[in-house]
Amino acid sequence: MPPWWLFLTVGAAAASAASINPSTFTVPGAFPTSVFTKYYNQATATSAQVQPVISDPVTHETYPLSLTDPNHIPQNDTVDPHPLPPVASSKRLLDSALAQVQSISANPVFANNTCAQCQSILEVAKFLTLAAPEQGPAFFVGVCTALKLASNCNVMFAIQNIGSVVTQVISNADVGGYDGQAFCQNFMGMCPIPPTSPLNLTNWFAKPKPNPLPAPKQRSGKRLNVLHISDVHLDPRYATGAEGNCTTGTCCRTNAFNTQSPNATLSPAPRFGTFHCDSPMALVMSALQAIPALTGTKGNGFAWTLYTGDLVSHDPESQLSRQYVEYTEALMYDLFKKMLGSGPVYAALGNHDSYNQAQDTPHSIGGGLAEQFSWNYDHVASLWQHEKWLPQAAVDLARAHYSAYMVKRIDGLRVISLNTNLWYRANYFNYINMTNPDVSGMLRFLTDELQDAEDAGDRVWIMGHVLSGWDGTNPLRNPTNLFYQIVDRFSPHVIANIFFGHTHEDQLSIFYANNATTRNADTAGAVAWIGPSITPLTNLNSGFRVYEVDSATFEVMDAHTWKSDVSTFPALDSQIQVGPSYAYEYSTRATYGGNVTSWGANDPLNATWWHHVTEAMEADPSLVTTFNTFQGKSSVQTKPCTGDCITAKICYIRSGSASIGQNCQQGFGSVQS
Ligand SMILES: [Zn+2]
Ligand SMILES: [Zn+2]
Question: What highest taxon heads this organism's lineage (predicted)?
Answer without folding.
Answer: Eukaryota
